[in-house]
Design goal:
mainly alpha, Serine Threonine Protein Phosphatase 5, Tetratricopeptide repeat
Length: 248
């Protein structure tokens, strides 16, 4: 009885999760992302880290680093800068560890590039140093693996959100997202289980809207909702906006 009470307390405080397999954790990350419950990611990331430390299997570390990237983006968007700084630092450490294991893996370089760009959001004065560093990392990632859907997505995001003087170009973003969507479609497991697929498709739709292609954006949003009907951001915000703009 005491043991059950102790486990219940740990669960309430998010300090313990029962053993879960790789795909189960990925699906839980995806479902939480779709529902907009990003705070649910904290115990899931702790479980990913625990699984890596106990197994030293790189797949857990890779999943953790990308989850930290996604969570950091959410924290930056919601102006939780102090917390974002800690998550970014952790993610950069994990990205460096991955790069030590495989220094020529494009998606690891793309990950570090985007995390470096996050640093600029926290401290704009660092842009003259960190900006070129982020660009070099992403260019190297693309040179090594131009068909990787994560590399292509991060290229698209850089083109979508950077100012024009820093290489921003929404038209080029559409091209990169289109290639990323085609690449990930060849991997049904990632389409069905990976939160990053939702992230990619929402970004693709936004790039289409930004370039005035609302009808195409609607098609992309409906496609991702067919895979994940509970994707609240697309269902309640992005798709209705595209439908409204398409009428005008």
């Amino acid at each position: 009885m005491r043991q059950l009470a102790f486990i219940f307390i740990l669960l309430l405080n998010g300090l313990w999760l029962p053993a879960q397999d790789y795909n189960e954790l990925r699906i839980r990350l995806k479902k939480s992302y779709a529902a907009g419950r990003m705070n649910d990611w904290e115990p899931l990331m702790r479980q990913l880290e625990k699984n890596f430390l106990s197994s030293e299997d790189t797949k857990w570390l890779e999943e953790l680093a990308w989850a930290e990237y996604g969570y950091a983006a959410y924290l930056l968007h919601t102006k939780q800068e102090e917390k974002a700084n800690k998550v970014i630092s952790s993610a950069l450490g994990h990205a460096d560890r991955l790069l030590k294991l495989n220094p020529r893996k494009g998606c690891y370089l793309a990950l570090k590039s985007s995390l470096t760009a996050f640093r600029i959001q926290l401290r704009p004065i660092s842009a003259p140093i960190l900006g070129p560093r982020s660009v070099r990392l992403l260019e190297k990632a693309y040179e090594i693996d131009p068909n990787n859907y994560r590399v292509l997505t991060e290229k698209g995001l850089a083109r979508l959100y950077a100012p024009s003087w820093a290489g921003g170009n929404p038209e080029e973003a559409v091209v990169f997202f289109s290639k990323a969507a085609a690449a990930i479609a060849k991997n049904p497991e990632s389409v069905n289980n990976d939160w990053y697929y939702l992230h990619l498709m929402a970004s693709y739709g936004q790039s289409l809207q930004k370039t005035g292609r609302n009808v195409q954006a609607i098609e992309i949003y409906r496609k991702v909702l067919n895979v994940e009907p509970s994707f609240q951001w697309v269902k309640n915000e992005l798709l209705p906006r595209a439908l409204s703009e398409a009428k005008n």
